[in-house]
Amino acid sequence: MGCVGSAPAKGDGNAKKIRKPKPWKHPQPITKSELEQMRDEFWDTAPHYGGQKEIWDALRAAAAEPDLSQAQVIVDCAGVIVQNTDLTICYDERGAKYELPKYVLSEPTNMIRDN
């Protein structure tokens, strides 16, 4: 790790720029409140899947960040190694795998209004 003004070393190009996930469709139409409930349940149980709580917290913050450049900073500062640029598969520096479902990263194309 270098200082703020340092440049990456040659060959240190394994850091991937994150991007928004591709549009996706839930198996059935879903409301915003149902989506939020699914997200809350995932994040409440995520640390039980293994890995470090700090990495899960960083991934949650990055997933909730609408500004991709800020999300990139969060991921980079946490030392997250991005496998898929949409954050669906990541690793920490110890090699633990973190899998995020698309519903925590974006909204489905078939979302309906709450009543």
Automatic annotation (TrEMBL):
Bias (Basic residues): 16-25
Protein name: DC-UbP/UBTD2 N-terminal domain-containing protein
Pfam family, one: UBD
Sequence segments annotated as region (Disordered): 1-31
Lineage: Eukaryota, Viridiplantae, Streptophyta, Embryophyta, Tracheophyta
Source species, domain of life: Eukaryota
Limits of the DC-UbP/UBTD2 N-terminal domain: 16-114
